[in-house]
Specification:
Blueprint lengths: L1 H11 L5 H15 L8 H17 L8 E9 L5 E9 L16 E8 L4 H16 L4 E4 L3 H13 L4 E4 L1 H13 L3 H17 L21 H15 L6 H7 L6 H24 L5 H9 L6 H17 L13 H14 L13 H4 L6 H10 L2 H11 L4 H11 L3
Helix pairs in contact: 1-2, 2-3, 3-15, 3-16, 4-5, 6-10, 6-12, 8-10, 10-11, 10-12
């Protein structure tokens, strides 16, 4: 089992591709253990999927109230996968650290050709019946289909509470505050124009951070930090000539950047607080203390008021109970999945989606042994055929096979 554990660790923790993990093991064992055979990449992939499917089907503790984190992983093609990760509420490390993948269990992986409120509500009910029982808390982003489905589910399961992810909530606040500001639009356009001029030059080391095509207000911190560092450099006694030539226009945005930094700071402070501490009846005073004095500017006061409203609205009303308010660890699992899939992440949903189950928890070698003994490869093949059906990769192969010249 040590070889299996090493192979999975190389893929899940060390960042190796499947082929890279196989090659690394072959190289290592060739140097130190001549007589030991090592697995090929397809064997490692099979282990990964068997462990992942076991995580999806193994019995879970239904005697405790659970937290669910839910979202869709979206790739090429029409199909989405509704992912539900969970953790018993009494195992959330409130006040110590944010949730980690090792804290979570895989509750559900549901392919959805059409995602709407009715479909989401139905799958939440199915997951509760099959896996954990009715959850105490569901945390999600603010996607309309998720909000509608969770709302409908809450209507029939009133003991289940819902908290919108704090980072998405904060990003929406900034979007509403800045998106229609002419100065913000001008700042963004100037960054894009400067990037285009520098990209193929020797001064490309001064390229600004890329702007996201989607959810761009989730990472405005990178742009603000970049602009602030450049302004500091431009204010120095001997600024770099190329920096002065390319970014001299930034000085015109000095006052705007000061305001944007303060407003973003209000949001980021709130996110950092609830990420670790959760939402509870003492969150309001803790947030005010973390903020300190807030400036008199109307936009700052409005953002602060909306964040106070978020804390009051979604905190637990039960004394001593805390609610999770972040899905960042779920987003992290999606990023890890894309890294494992490599180029396949551009080819729609594949069987490697089961790897999400393998990256969760903190399994021992005994746990891995049990997972592989309980989950033969034919069970994985059956699940893939029933659940995913023909993938984009399979359809592409069939198309070109049938249309050979």
């Amino acid at each position: 089992m040590s070889i299996i554990a090493l192979a999975l660790d190389l893929v899940l923790d060390a960042g190796c591709s499947l082929r890279g993990a196989a090659a690394a093991m072959a190289t290592f064992f060739q140097h130190f253990f001549d007589s030991i055979a090592t697995p090929c990449f397809s064997t490692i992939r099979a282990w990964l999927l068997r462990v992942g499917l076991y995580a999806l089907t193994k019995p879970l503790d239904r005697t405790k109230p659970w937290l669910w984190l839910i979202d869709h992983t979206i790739q090429s093609g029409a199909q989405k996968i509704l992912v539900i990760l969970g953790c018993p509420m009494d195992q959330v490390p409130f006040g110590q650290r944010a949730l980690q993948l090792s804290d979570l269990q895989l509750i559900a992986l549901v392919p959805m050709d059409v995602s709407n409120g009715d479909a989401v509500e139905r799958e939440l009910e199915n997951a509760a019946l099959r896996r954990t029982g009715v959850p105490r808390l569901i945390v999600s982003d603010q996607g309309s289909d998720l909000l509608k489905g969770i709302g409908d589910y809450g209507d029939i399961r009133p003991k289940t509470c819902h908290v919108p992810d704090a980072a998405h909530y904060g990003a929406n606040l900034l979007k509403h505050a800045w998106n229609d500001q002419p100065r913000w639009q001008q700042f963004g356009q100037q960054l894009q124009d400067t990037s285009a001029k520098l990209r193929q030059t020797k001064t490309a080391f001064l390229l600004p951070p890329r702007t996201r095509a989607k959810a761009r207000f989730m990472n405005v911190a990178a742009q603000l930090r970049f602009a602030g560092r450049l302004l500091k450099h431009l204010d120095s006694e001997a600024p770099h000539a190329k920096a002065l030539e390319s970014y001299g226009w930034l000085t015109e945005f000095r006052d705007d950047l000061t305001v944007w930094h303060r407003e973003h700071g209000l949001v980021q402070t709130a996110i950092d607080l609830v990420r670790v501490d959760g939402l509870h009846r003492g969150s309001g005073p803790l947030l005010e203390k973390a903020w300190g004095e807030i400036g008199p500017r109307e936009s700052e006061q409005r953002i602060a008021a909306k964040l106070r409203e978020y804390v009051v609205t979604y905190q637990s009303k039960t004394l001593g109970e805390r609610f999770v308010a972040s899905t960042e660890i779920l987003e992290s699992s999606f990023g890890k999945l894309k890294r494992i899939e490599g180029q396949q992440s551009q080819d729609g949903v594949t069987g490697l989606v089961l790897a999400i189950g393998a990256m969760l928890g903190n399994p021992t070698e005994e746990d891995l042994k049990e997972a592989l003994e309980e989950t033969p490869q034919k069970q994985v093949d059956g699940w893939l055929e029933r659940t995913l059906g023909p993938t984009m990769q399979w359809l592409r192969r069939q198309f070109f096979r049938q249309n050979k010249p």
